[in-house]
Design brief:
Length: 311
């Protein structure tokens, strides 16, 4: 249940070399028809008439041309591209082909399990205390409106901006991998203590707003040597995330950026508490039971939580 906004994460630029990247783009010749239906057809005149016919509606918008061309058969498409080279230039066609590839790209699944690389990223902090096979990443759901990540049970809901064009999580500050590092903490809480972390996290956030305290702040708790089972759910998850990211930076594994001066301090503060994560000691003292958590949110909320938490 991270409050980090991911508006800038995951924006993907066009692929492939630009028109000036070491070679000059050349107008392609009109394609000759492949053997079979349409073999021997001269596509040039037809392509010329198609360009003239579509120009009033598509204008000089490379995105509109790319989406339209993506729906055309290859011989005609190649012939039209050759004509557009002549009429609008190489850079226009370079932009248009990027939009055409995007239009043809397969739709990514709305849900998937953790990849082996993502499990490897989390493993140094949690070892085998998480059943990774039960975790599901769900993208662009009702719970991600506003650009936030939220976790219900084993399901981590992430904004679409958290993944790249092939489905991998984005890296860097407030990227998908950083969000996963926090949200997996709530999965760990669920797998060891049930749904009690949900009202605990919500109450911590609410109380924090009322008194001006950051519910995610864990460093003060660690410096004061407050027992881990007395931390709120957000502080527990944030400590795990901070430790995991700092550890990867210090070990220079290349998945979380270069180390910063605070990384060693983060590891030093978190180290006494990390064994709790590795062993799965999650339940907080005086925390409501799972049944009590459902009572707190009412029967409708309980039903919704059960549905959202399903694997």
């Amino acid at each position: 249940m991270s409050g980090g906004n991911h508006d800038e994460a995951g924006k993907v630029a066009g692929h492939g070399p630009g028109p000036d990247a070491g070679h000059e783009a050349r107008p392609r010749e009109a394609a000759k028809a492949a053997p079979g239906a349409g073999a021997g057809v001269d596509w040039g005149p037809l392509a010329e008439s198609m360009v003239l016919g579509m120009e009033p509606s598509l204008g000089s918008d490379p995105a509109a041309w790319g989406v339209w061309l993506a729906r055309q058969d290859a011989p005609l498409r190649n012939a039209v591209i050759a004509k557009l080279h002549e009429r609008k230039g190489n850079f226009f066609v370079f932009q248009m082909e990027g939009h055409m590839r995007n239009a043809n790209a397969p739709k990514l699944p709305d849900e998937r399990p953790l990849s082996s690389a993502e499990i490897g990223f989390l493993f140094p902090t949690y070892l085998t205390s998480i059943h990774y096979g039960s975790v599901r990443l769900k993208f662009d759901t009702l719970l991600t409106k506003g650009g936030y990540g939220r976790t219900v049970g084993n399901a981590i809901h992430m904004p679409e901006s958290c993944r790249g064009p092939t489905g991998e999580l984005t890296t860097g500050h407030e990227g998908g991998l950083e969000l996963l590092a926090h949200e997996i903490g709530h999965v760990w809480q669920f797998q060891h203590s049930g749904l009690v972390y949900i009202p605990d996290a919500l109450l911590a956030q609410l109380a924090g707003k009322m008194v001006g305290h950051d519910a995610y702040e864990w460093q003060g708790l660690a410096r004061s040597k407050v027992p881990f089972d007395e931390w709120n759910a957000e502080a527990q998850a944030e400590m795990g995330a901070a430790y995991n990211i700092a550890l990867h930076k210090v070990l220079a594994q290349g998945t979380a950026g270069k180390p910063e001066p605070t990384d060693l301090e983060t590891i030093e503060l978190a180290t006494p508490y990390v064994p709790k994560l590795m062993s799965g000691q999650a339940r907080r003292k005086n925390s409501p039971t799972e049944t009590g958590a459902k009572i707190l949110v009412g029967p409708v909320g309980s039903f919704i939580i059960d549905k959202l938490a399903g694997d």
